[in-house]
Amino acid sequence: MYKKLKLTTISELIKNIYCSLSVLIIGCASAYAVEFNKDLIEAEDRENVNLSQFETDGQLPVGKYSLNALINNKRTPIHLDLQWVLIDN
């Protein structure tokens, strides 16, 4: 009824495991997507906010960013000023 898989060597077994894991890892990585909730942006016209510059790593422009935290739609005393700088490698 069932055919038994016969592996001749340990190296063949390791190769098969490695190939299977590689396919699994590559498949999972390519299926990962980033989504952003535009409702978090305080703007009058949220539908026309262009977030395309943030689609890839390293695309946040240099500058000072102000951050206020809201919990359950209530402002908290948490306020941060973040400074993004360009670092030469």
TrEMBL record:
Domain PapC N-terminal intervals: 35-77
Protein name: Fimbrial biogenesis outer membrane usher protein
Organism: Escherichia coli
InterPro entries attached to this UniProt entry: PapC_N, PapC_N_sf
Domain of life: Bacteria
Pfam family, one: PapC_N
Higher taxonomy: Bacteria, Pseudomonadati, Pseudomonadota, Gammaproteobacteria, Enterobacterales
Gene3D superfamilies for the chain: 3.10.20.410
